[in-house]
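ARCHIVE CARD
Drawer: 12
Card no.: 0347
Subject: one protein chain, sequence and derived structure
Cross-reference: see card 0346
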Amino acid sequence: IGVGERQRRPVIGVVWRDGLSEPLPPVLKVLEEVVGKLKDSGVDVVELNVPQFKKCQSLANAFFGVDGGNSVFDLLEKTGEPLINWLSTRLRRKKPIGMEELRDLHARKTELETEFLKIWKDVRGRRIDAFICPVAPHPVPPIDKWNGVSYTSSFVLLDYPAGTVPVRLFQESDLKGNISGDILSPWDKVNRELWDEKSIDRRVYLDTPLSVQVVAPKLQERRLYRAMEVVDDAVRTTKLATKL
């Protein structure tokens, strides 16, 4: 709620998935727990359908590579610092894009930003104060095994303020559960391998933090802070949340 507005019950959206990488069971489980605690604390929780989400990653990648990665490689060559293993197979020098292509990228970004404006009202016309979603589709993996970045890079692209609220540590009970359905993308294929007992020991996740991400509209950092406070209060207690 902005300064000077009457106190009202917060309205928090929930986005379960981005359409590119299906969240693994413990990620969905902790998100469900937070939704339940928000409702118990008096927050109105609205499920959001955001098909635009899956359009963000490819566009974000295009922006990240406008200079062909040459600035980074020039700096690395001067210092003699090698790329970490995770980047060594993903980052290569490329030709910088031209001005016309950059203009087209900005046009696509503006179009996507306009589409996203629709998510900030629910079907009853109420303002969505903020929404929660996964930080990543997987728990904290071993070094150089991190996979999905679309749950965070999307909001870098959109210039949405976002933050992470720790919920609890990964427990023995979180080792259960399987993922089904069709593979959504190459990112999703690798993501599922992070839960496949043939390729990883799930116990590596024990005692790692499980968190949720909180996202607010562009230029609404105060709303983000207040929404994170509401989510954190709900996670720690079940007291009534009266305002953002």
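Annotation on reverse: Residues 44 and 112 are 27 Å apart (CA to CA). The chain is about 35% helix and 10% strand.
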